[in-house]
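The authors assume throughout that readers already know how a fold can be written as discrete tokens. For illustration, here is how one protein appears when written out as sequence plus structure tokens:
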Amino acid sequence: MSTTDTDDGTVLLDERTGRYWQLNSTGGHVLRQLLGGYEPTGIAAELADRYGIGLEQAERDVTAVIERLRASELVIS
């Protein structure tokens, strides 16, 4: 997988299939944090603090990004 940050978020290239994916800025941040070894709960806590949202909402949002990445086989685990 190759990634490139853009003004609108992050573009991913699945080198196995040649398919491109686009994540908004928050989704791109979640991906970078995951690739950096951060745990989903820590990522959610950071987003909750950054955006002034509830921790439960942030956890749901992070989980949704992860599920989409898994469903697309862009991340495993």
In short: The longest helix spans residues 55-71. Helices lie at 25-35, 40-51, 55-71. Residues 25-72 form one domain.
